[in-house]
Amino acid sequence: MRKSKSLTNQNKLLSEISRRAKEIHADSYPMSIGEITSIYRDKELDIHPEFQRVFRWSPLQKTKFVESILLGIPIPSIFVSQRDDGVWDVVDGVQRLSTIFQFTGILKNEEGQLVSPNKLIGTEYLPSLEGMAWDDKDDPENSFSDSLRIDFKRQKLDIKIVKKESDPNTKYDLFERLNTLGSHLSDQEVRNCLLVMINPKFHTWLETLANDESFIETTSLSDKLIDEKYNMELVLRFLIFSNASSQALSGIQDVGEHLSKKMRAIAIDPTYDIKKAGNDFKITFDAIHEALGPDCFRRSEGQKGRGGFLISVFEVIAIGLGTNVSGTKKPKPDIAGIKKALSKLWSNPVFTNYSRSGRSATSRIPKLIPLGRNLFDVV
Question: Given this model, what pLDDT does residue 177 score?
Answer without folding.
Answer: 63
